[in-house]
Design goal:
This protein has 788 residues and is an alpha/beta fold. It is built from 19 helices and 25 strands.
Length: 788
């Protein structure tokens, strides 16, 4: 950890300050948690009132400030408090969100109570070195969005829009997803705890394994249950395994779910895609809260299991990294990861805990019921946040689990520490640190007012996102070039006679009866840029409408063709009618000129648009959107920054150690010299006292020993003066050592500040124009476009 006092340090989360349990007081030492440590996951255990939610919100706030996306599953509704951020910290900001009952309990009207809450938050933040500016920074970075599956209170989540897996899904992953999804769907239909070999579970898993990429929703499932697309299950025929009459009963169960009022909302909203949840349309990271507090138990399990399965699939499509790519936080894992039972959520949770770290996805699970937590599943969890526990049984369960993941810990000491914890005070055991730390959590930037209701969520989401339109396959009509002004409208007739030298092609069209003429061009275009390392070949297919007048074809008005040359037909459709083309279209000599014009148009108007991030030396891949490239560049920037920070820490560690040791030795020298001065002064005082007493007793007492003591006193005074000079010299050396350490700290801060802001690199758009010699025209033809 860098020896800086500020908590705004690169890649470090400000969680709080150390706490002295024996003195029951907060210390000045900051507790800064390395974001990369979350790659090995974390668990937070604490009873109600322990401050567990506040700690979780603090972690999410810190992640957002560091531009790390967060997917938060919220069973209780508390995480929506992340929307309550008021940089101005005025009573008017707090007023809409205070509870009138709380105000009345304190004998205040809501306005006065809101002002009191604002002052409380301002003072609380100030105690921890925070203010409205940090709230504003979090608010600008967070982009908090609350998704509410099964409800329009927030942003709807199309949970059951598609039951298909991702293309290229591996066998083991597919089996786990199918089993979990089948169990969740059966629970939704009222069939709880289906055994692994039950007919219902096997039938649903078999149906889901054959789900198409589009259209595999719940209505499709009902139809498949009635009339499956297969006739055997295993070695048995379908009727023997599950007769049609009994399948009809299962279909009716699911149909009842479909027919329930308001169920259509489960099919609407944002897609169940973790990539879309973690990053906005502009590629910026966000905090996506999936709120399930309004749902019943079966619906909650369905949401959690489907969401976690989707996260598993998304995670495995990412490339490996040691930096924290994203954080998945679950506020209450009770019932979702039990030690004995196997609910649908357990399998994907186990998979994420075992494998997500390789892809930079960190898991943080919180619970107030340690007895219901499978500690074997958490055997690889790197960080444990342990708060106040309710019973001795809970404490014993936590100690058992912690001993299992961190052998060699002193159980008696841990037991004593856990017993002394209070509200907002946690014991953090991090495998990446040398010893456990007891700390008090910092004040949250968000206003903690408790769970938000549906009406309150609607107030925070005045404009609910409309369902995203289906991605439609382009129809032939979509690629039909619009006729230019003044173009003739020839009547439909039989297919015209086209000279043999002119190649004809027919664009595909279902049920089309009339075809209109257009000029079709296709070319392979190579884009090169040696400076940026670009060498890409793309296909350009275009349609240009024929026009009357001196310029029958203008490629500048062309549109992208809906199909490439390989998808075109060369035979005339039966019983079709054709619009008469202009005379120029039937002149074979014109096509050579149009070929040249096509090349000119590509060189002039069809550059390759790529995106570049100079800070991380990245360029986009062909077809990669700006959003996807921005996400990739942000991860590359975070990896680069983490590597630079590690290098800075390594380079400075020896210097800091030497400077700190010099200060420590100087302090020890001063203490030793001061002790010697004190002792010398005491001896001199005794000698002086004895000499004075001897002199006072008279001449008879002035013996040789008395004269010796007087000489000793003289020498002692001299030594005392020398020791005093030594102390002054040691103090001067201490001052110099402290100045050296302070200068080193300033140097480190200056070097670290140069690394700040690199996790969101600037994206620039670059156009690479093709060279004429790199345009290979494959086809220039008279194309017939299907119409009505």
């Amino acid at each position: 950890m860098l020896p800086m006092q500020q908590f705004e340090q690169l890649g470090l989360f400000y969680l709080g300050k150390r706490f002295d349990l024996s003195a029951r007081r907060r210390l000045d030492d900051l507790v800064l948690y390395d974001a990369k440590d979350l790659v090995t996951h974390a668990v937070c255990v604490g009873m109600t009132g322990s401050g567990k939610t506040g700690l979780g919100l603090s972690v999410i706030e810190e992640a957002a400030i560091d531009n790390i996306p967060v997917l938060a599953i919220d069973p209780k509704g508390d995480l929506s408090n992340l929307l309550l951020t008021f940089p101005a910290l005025t009573g008017d900001d707090f007023a809409p969100w205070v509870d009138p009952a709380d105000a009345a309990a304190q004998g205040l009207d809501p306005g006065a109570f809101a002002a009191q809450q604002a002052d409380k938050w301002k003072q609380g933040l100030a105690e921890w070195g925070e203010d409205g500016d940090r709230i504003a920074r979090f608010k600008a970075a967070a982009n908090v969005t609350v998704f509410t599956p099964g409800s329009r209170a927030g942003t709807p989540l199309a949970l059951l829009k598609s039951l298909a897996g991702q293309p290229g899904e591996e066998g083991e992953d597919a089996a786990a997803r199918l089993a979990s999804t089948a169990d969740s769907l059966l629970a939704l239909a009222g069939i709880q705890d289906a055994e692994g070999h039950s007919r219902e579970r096997t039938l649903l898993a078999t149906i889901l394994s054959r789900a198409p990429q589009t259209g595999a929703d719940l209505p499709w499932l009902v139809q498949q249950i009635q009339r499956p697309s297969f006739d055997r299950v295993g070695v048995l025929d379908l009727e023997t395994f599950y007769p049609a009459k009994e399948r009809q009963e299962l279909a009716l169960r699911f149909n009842s779910v479909l027919a329930a009022p308001g169920f259509d909302i489960w099919l609407e909203g944002a897609p169940l895609d973790p990539g879309s949840l973690l990053y906005g349309d502009n590629g910026r990271p966000r905090v996506a809260i999936v709120s399930i507090a309004h749902l019943g138990d079966a619906e909650r399990m369905l949401v959690v299991s489907l969401l976690l399965n989707a996260l598993v699939e998304w995670t495995r499509r990412q490339r490996g990294t040691t930096s924290l790519r994203a954080l998945c936080y679950m506020d209450e894992v009770f019932g979702y990861l039990p030690p004995v039972a196997n609910p649908p959520s357990k399998a994907p949770l186990l998979t994420l805990l075992k494998q997500a770290r390789a892809y930079g996805v960190g898991m943080m699970l919180a619970t107030q019921n340690p007895v219901d937590l499978d500690y074997k599943a958490l055997s690889n969890t790197g960080t444990w946040f342990l708060g106040k526990l309710q019973t001795e049984r809970d404490k014993a369960r936590v100690l058992d689990g912690l001993e299992g993941v961190a052998g060699g810990l002193d159980r008696a000491t841990l037991d004593s520490t856990l017993s002394a914890l209070g509200s907002r005070v946690f014991l953090m055991h991090n495998v990446h640190e040398h010893e456990p730390v007891v700390f008090e959590t910092r004040w949250t930037l968000s206003y903690l007012r408790g769970p938000l209701g549906r009406d309150e969520l609607r107030r925070l989401n005045p404009t609910v996102q409309s369902p995203r339109p289906e991605v439609q396959t382009p129809t032939p009509e979509a690629g039909t070039p619009k006729p230019e002004a003044g173009s003739p409208k020839p009547a439909a007739e039989a297919r015209p006679i086209v000279p043999p030298a002119i190649q004809e092609v027919f664009l595909p069209g279902s049920g089309a009866t009339t075809y209109a003429p257009a000029l079709y061009g296709s070319a392979k275009v190579q884009y090169t840029d040696s400076k940026r390392g670009i060498d890409v070949v793309q296909e350009v297919n275009a349609l240009a409408a024929f026009a009357s007048g001196p310029v029958p074809v203008n490629w500048d008005n062309a549109e992208d063709a809906p199909a490439g040359p390989d998808a075109l037909a060369t035979a005339s459709p039966a019983s079709a009618t054709f619009a008469m083309p202009p005379a120029a279209a039937l002149d074979a000599k014109k096509y050579a000129g149009w070929n040249k014009d096509f090349v000119d148009w590509i060189v002039r108007s069809r550059p390759l648009t790529i995106f570049a991030a100079k800070a991380v030396k990245l360029t986009s891949m062909p077809g990669e959107s700006e959003r996807d490239f921005r996400v990739r560049a942000q991860l590359a920037a975070r990896e680069q920054r983490d590597a630079q920070v590690e290098k800075l820490r390594a380079n400075c560690a020896a210097k800091v150690t030497r400077a700190t040791d010099k200060v420590r030795k100087a302090e020890e020298t001063i203490a030793r010299e001061q002790q010697q001065v004190t002792q010398q002064r005491m001896q001199t005082a005794v000698s002086v006292g004895a000499t004075i007493l001897g002199a006072f007793l008279g001449r008879k007492a002035m013996t040789a020993s008395t004269l010796g003591r007087a000489t000793t006193v003289a020498r002692g005074v001299g030594r005392s003066m020398k020791e005093t000079e030594d102390v002054a010299g040691a103090q001067e050396r201490l001052t110099l050592a402290r100045q050296e350490l302070a200068a080193l700290q300033q140097q480190i801060e200056a070097e670290a500040s140069e690394l700040a802001g690199t996790t969101d690199p600037e994206i620039e758009t670059v156009e690479v124009k093709p060279k004429r010699g790199n345009v290979d025209v494959r086809l220039i033809a008279l194309a017939w476009i299907p119409g009505n």
